[in-house]
Amino acid sequence: MTTTIDVTDRPLPFSAARAARRGDEVTVLLNARVVDPGTGTSSSPSDVWLQAGQISRVTPAGRVPRAGNVLDLRGNFVAPGMMDAHVHLAFDGGDDPKATHQASSDEEIIAQVVANARIALRAGITTVRDCGTPRRLLAPMRAALGMASDVATVVHCGAPLCRVGGHAHDMGGEVRTRHDVHTLIAEQHAAGATWIKLMASGGGFTPGTSPSVFEFDPVLLREAVVIAGSYGMKTAAHAHASSSMAACIDAGVHTLEHASMLGPDERCSPDPGLLRRAADAGIHIVPTVIAADIVSRQLQEGRQVLANPLDRNVVARLESRFTNVTEFLHSGVSIVAGTDAGPAHVTFDLLARELERYVAAGLTAQHALKSATTEAASMLGLESQVGRIRPGLWADLIFTSADPLQDITTLQTPLGVLKRGLLIAH
What is the pTM of this model? Predict the structure, then answer.
């Protein structure tokens, strides 16, 4: 028996997810126009066959299975699920996330983590990289996420490593010696982290730190990259200052987060030479523009959503993130999408708006979409699992009414989301 569902039905019927749950039946996405971010093309109507949560084949439209489920896309588009490479799942994105976090029990924080991963998935974000969580909560956080089927896949960094009193030190990642670095990395690897976050400069949330200064022992920075690599882990560096970016490039980190290019005078000064070095080293930059837009607007309205007296040029620093994307584009460095979700009113469903900002800064819609699919998958080491619509990859997919290669705004309102072949009600 074949069950056929129209993707434009509201609400999407529960029966459409039955095959994915059973795993032994076939689900066919009928009459779908397949979006390929890598080549920048969208196919004529095709049928995408799924089984056991994976894509099994893509064929010309027209062959309806004798048994299983059919989801008729009626010529609408299917694209790879998006990936947000910079979020903070332990914060709620509310009026005062830091205060809420500090007042919450561990159980409440973990419940918030799951809720945020659920919000992301419903927005078409099928994978996120969590860039900082309390040290003690990494293992229970992973356990809670593993019990939920309707949440985004999470790539974990664990607690960020920082100098004593450094940015986000309250998450438990302060290091003084090589022994501290090795102990913390080994512990987080055992708890399930596959990345290590390094706080190479100060940040707006942490009084006593300076975003315009390199705030990590350069010897320990290099040691952290080497030790993480010995465990098969990659490194992500929070780096506002140009000096911190340069040190991180020298140390061999894999990603630069924010990359504000702040000079010692606290002014944003684009540095093409520095960006070329990053590009030549194969380093990815995660700009996190939408968070800067939202937070800077609140600051200009008089809301004290950041509280660091040493972050004296904060609005200009935040506003530079948008113009810096154009600099990143011209340098040829790999841009990977990330929202920095978690701060005040920076919620976990904003990745489509992040991509729109990239297009406004000069990227093509294809380039922007790649930053959240193929480029993100490559950076995260997941290219053999997600990021394209290919046989053997997971069926992490989104449906849109328009072609995102032509109209990036269509990603804000997906018709539906599949996570490993399971249809998530939208």
Answer: 0.95
Q: Which amino acid is at 14?
A: F
Whether the bond into 65 is cis, omega within 30 of 0: no
What is the token pair recorded at 13?
Answer: 């019927």
Strand partners, 143: none
User: How many Å apart are CA 332 and CA 42, to the nearest integer?
Assistant: 25
| Interacting residues of 181 by C-beta distance below 8 A, sequence separation 6+ | 161, 175, 220, 223, 224, 227
Cβ-contact 237, 220 below 8 angstroms: no
Which residues pair with residue 256 across a beta bridge? Answer: 237, 285
Question: Amino acid identity, residue 330?
Answer: H
Angle between helices 314-331 and 272-280 (to 10 degrees): 60
Strand ranges, E, within 272-413? 284-286, 334-335, 397-400
CA distances (Å), 33 to each of 29, 46, 47, 76, 124, in order?
10, 6, 8, 6, 17
Whether 304 shows a pLDDT value over 70: the answer reads yes
pLDDT tens digits for range 394-410: 999 999 999 999 999 99
φ/ψ of residue 360, rounded to 5: -60, -30
If DSSP codes are grouped into helix, strand and coil, which group holds residue 16?
helix
pLDDT in tens, 250-296: 999 999 999 999 999 889 999 999 999 999 999 999 999 999 999 99
Rounded to the nearest 10 degrees, how much is the dihedral formed by the CA atoms of 391, 393, 395, 396? -140
Q: Which two tokens stand for residue 296?
A: 């800077």
